[in-house]
Amino acid sequence: MSEVQTSATVETAKKPVVELQHRHHHDESTGKDHPLTMSREMKFSFRTIVVDGPQVKEPVTGAPATKDDKKSAAAKKDIYVIKRPSLELVLPVPTPYGIHRALQDDKCRDWLVNVVADQIRDAAIWQIAPDEGTAVNSQEALDYNKLTIEYLANLPPSERGVGIRKEKWELWEADYKAVMPAVTGKNEKQIQTALDLFLKRLQPCRGNKKVLAALKEQLSLWIANSQNAEEFGDIALYLDGKLDAFMSADEEALLANL
Length: 258
What we know:
Largest sheet: 3 strands, antiparallel
Oligomer: single chain
Strand content: 15-25%
């Protein structure tokens, strides 16, 4: 058995053709080649950064800073920002056969196990973190059914907050604080109150339809006004899905009992 390389072309949204070198595993017993990698187009977004003035340039592209009209109106002075344009790249990612082959190597297997272990740890945090009576506080209270590969793989996109790193939540929190005062006219305490509910994954208000509706409106305003909304799209999708689920929960329970 041996490995070979072949090239593959991929049509992308902004580039006509991208050529990648893909690795294959040649099975000499059958004479067949099995691809170890495949092409996947991925998008990378970058944060908007406030800078000292129009003389500052974006370090990668060299583009000059631009005036942010919304931030300038809120601050009552000229605010300049830089932002690197989104980047779309075609990357070689492992095929199922490639993952199967990697599991035959001790170091690759250990790395893959640790990647999955990190996801399971993040899933456990969702059981431990809520500041309410349902928070897990012992080994016996853990729901192991929600810590399996099968369970995590079958979560709908709106519930995949388990895959969002703590550092990204912290960056989103900073962006929300920066955007919302000018958009809503609310004071710092009001902004922080809504933010605390979002950061607690809406658990403290899950049965309060009026509060949930108000938070849904606030989230929509943030999405419409933040220049970093695309970067934090996974957080917005998760929170919006949670809001919809909590707002419809009572109606669904009532219908089930009719």
